[in-house]
């Protein structure tokens, strides 16, 4: 790592040591938030009991609540948030559009068609997850096949007329999947409808493989962070990047693959949790600068924290009634982000 | 509306039918110049109550999922839970359209009223509402005698069940409507009433909504003696069986009932209530052993 950021827009974090300190601080915050989330519950449970259950094994209801319900849920929430924020960050570099989020290229739509289709067929949790994964994979392959010219072209961006093809293809696919989802919702019998709507707003209750998102997040970060310098150059423009020795087709394909994998795992685990993938990278970019080497891991931790907080609120605030996590996140996130925008100006 | 009905009224003056007048569940007095012989029902429970009132032959249109009694399946469907087919309803020239007050979309019902179709609001949310609804439908259709007899039988059966089960040791019951998201019944649902009748206490009776989405940990914390569902697939309850500290799991009271009409606030609910009472009583015996 060099000591100077290649994109000096707001170079707050200028050395590797500073970056590690920032990640460490955010990591500590994340651990604190997760601990609090495990201890917090509704009116039926007390924090002291939760703490006792956490540190001492005993066959009590509280022990099961803490170890079998809250802990897996909190870990899954952190993983899902981290994957989505990281993926959003990558997508914003890939399509060079600030409005990009993990769902821009139609992945969530494909996953929704798969998952909702499985629900309509009366499938169980595991089959719904497989449906979502299959739908996401299909959308991903469709984007790649349709947009391979944009992703793989060796020509310089200025010399071809398909530079915006990727995002347009993604948006079109998303619109198509959206229409199919609307049809499914209208035609679905009442008994399935609530489950389908909850899935689409994001639902972390009853997560099947709770460790998968965190594992996938770590793997993606280890693979992506070494590409940081090339991402920085790519974010400035394909032409200057290739002049400086970056091979855009390779890097873009890699970003696309990792962002898609991350989104697919997140969506398969928790449904389409919106908002986090768009807002966390933007908010952090304003706070710590646009150096992708620092920003991507920071986004991952920040996204994880946001989803854990939102999920805990959704679980606790109207107890024993459960609110959809995506809606809660938008309710707390929109004012925060607007404040950040206006404040900076 | 009067202009539409006047020719029919004049025509029917020659016959022996008298005008009927019934107060509906919105508090409006609905007056028809003659008993209704072309009735459209916009909810499954209304359809069922109409058949029990002896007016089954007069039902010319129903809502989707009007599966009880069996004869109701043969009536053309003119609505579902979210939309009603206004054109078909108008073309059926109904004497009255009976809507479910809290279920049928209000905007579309208003449009029906504007088109001059007489609308009757029905609302049955407790077991005690079912028999009065049947009697009123009987009055509307001019089949009061059949309706009164069936309503009396229904109430008598309920009274017998209550006398048998309501005073036995109370069970804390969690009723699962759906597993993902985890949904149960609040106090506003008729299943809450049925549980009470069978000597069970709904652990979420403190919630006002009909079908609230609740957290799993709230269920564990409230420690039910029995966990009950009527879903077709029994595996939706498997998740609970790991929580061996729950009384419901310890005593083997995680039950899937064959009671498909339990959520239907109309006379066909009765066999399902009987099943519920019997199964809860067996659960009670398992706890006593």
From TrEMBL, chain A:
It is a multi-pass membrane protein. It comes from the Bacteria. The chain crosses the membrane at residues 20-40, 74-95, 115-146, 166-187, 207-227, 294-317, 323-342. The keyword Membrane applies. Its main location: membrane. Keywords: Cell membrane, Membrane, Transmembrane, Transmembrane helix, Transport. It is found in: Cell membrane. Pfam families: FecCD (PF01032). The keyword Cell division does not apply. Belongs to the binding-protein-dependent transport system permease family. FecCD subfamily. This is Iron ABC transporter permease. It comes from Luteibacter sahnii.
